[in-house]
Every structure is written in C-alpha cells, then in structure tokens.
Write a structure and sequence with these properties.
By secondary structure, this protein is of the alpha+beta class. Helices cover 34% and strands 30% of the residues. A 5-stranded antiparallel β-sheet has the order 2-3-1-4-5, with helices on one face. β2 and β3 form a beta hairpin. α2 runs antiparallel to α3. Pfam families: EACC1.
C-alpha cells in the first residue's frame, strides 16, 4: 500500500477551502491527515483513497458548481498526477486514477 499527499484547490473558492477541510476531517480515516494552506492537503493511501473520493464528491454534490483540481504525489516519488473535474464528474473514474497512481511502483 503506497501513501501519498493530495492537494485540492478550488478556483475562486472564497471561503470554501476551510469548509472542505472540515468536511473531510469528519471522515474517521482522514482525521488528523487534513490541513489547510493555499490548498487543502490530505495524506492518503491507496486504501483510504476511496473514503477521500466519496467524501470529496459528497461535498461537491451539496450544491457546489465548483470545479476542483487535485494534485497527487506519491511518497518518495517525483511524479505527480493532476486531475481537474467538477461535481458531475465520474467519482469512480477519479478514484481509479488516484488509486492506480498511488499503487504504481
């Protein structure tokens, strides 16, 4: 199981980043792994990625038309995965991309 960091940005977010961080902290598997800087930063593993993605899409579905950008970086690796999507995007496709990237050796 590979661990990594996900940085979430919401263009023109106003005050939504602290709200998103609080939302994600409500998940037991993510508690203690969420921080807010100029992005919401979450420590994830390939196993906690499902909780992360479900929670993120649930937050987006709460009436936000916002698009978000994810930048995923594996621990100890230089490569990054960049994903841009909105609330109507396919959560399973995003989850598959994040888990697949984290599981690459």
């Amino acid at each position: 199981m590979t661990a990594g960091i996900v940085a979430i940005t919401v263009p023109n977010s106003g005050g939504e980043l602290p709200e998103l961080a609080a939302w994600l902290r409500g998940e037991d598997e993510l508690r203690g792994r969420v921080q807010v800087f100029d992005a919401v930063v979450v420590g994830v593993s390939s196993s906690s990625a499902a909780v992360f993605c479900r929670s993120l899409f649930a937050w987006l579905a709460r009436g936000r038309g916002a698009r978000v950008s994810l930048k995923v970086k594996r621990s100890g690796a230089a490569e990054e995965l960049q994903l841009d999507f909105g609330a109507a995007s396919d959560a399973e496709q995003v989850l598959g991309a994040v888990q697949g990237f984290l599981d690459q050796a």
